[in-house]
Amino acid sequence: MTSLETLILTAFVLIAIFAAVPAIMWQIYQYQALAEARAAVAFLNVLADSIESDMGAAYAQKIVNMPQLRFGELTYSTTTLGQCNGAPVYNTTLTYKSPYLSLFGLYRGTRWRSLVDAPEPPIAINGWGTSVSLAPRIVRYGNIAVVLNITYTASQGALGVGIYYAVYSPKTYSADQCNFNTGDTSTVVVIPVVIELR
What we know:
Layout: H1 3-53, E1 60-65, E2 73-84, E3 87-97, E4 103-108, E5 115-117, E6 123-129, E7 131-136, E8 138-141, E9 144-154, E10 162-167, E11 171-174, E12 187-197
Keywords: Membrane, Transmembrane, Transmembrane helix
Transmembrane segments: 6-29
């Protein structure tokens, strides 16, 4: 074999190797992103379970450690659900987004609605496309509606290592004092929760 033939064969082999590298790297990133997404869904479930377990414990405080997010990001959106006796009631949704994902279905709860009946959990987690969201909703327990009034802040110099939350004492209103849909209920219990990125 001449040196020219060896050079041509080596060039073709190198082209084949470098053509395969991006596909191999994409597969590696996809596997790592899937592992990160599982950790993010587990984190959202732990956060929801923890907040719900402390719903009746006024002034409960905890920090839930966050997984390291390299392939996706955790975002939030806060909307005003309405008012009770002039005080605003907020609805904050935490969303994990990653372009490597394809998630569909509920990971917590059986219905993705803003008003549900017990025994549905007050916080639902839903995967849709490239994102998975944690959202509080109104839960009816007979003629009583329970609402989590969740607000979000970030501490100064937040590093994204955890989420701190504090549950405050519930406030009770008659249903006609609130201007959002609670179904056929006579009493509305609003539980204030502050979530803070640490």
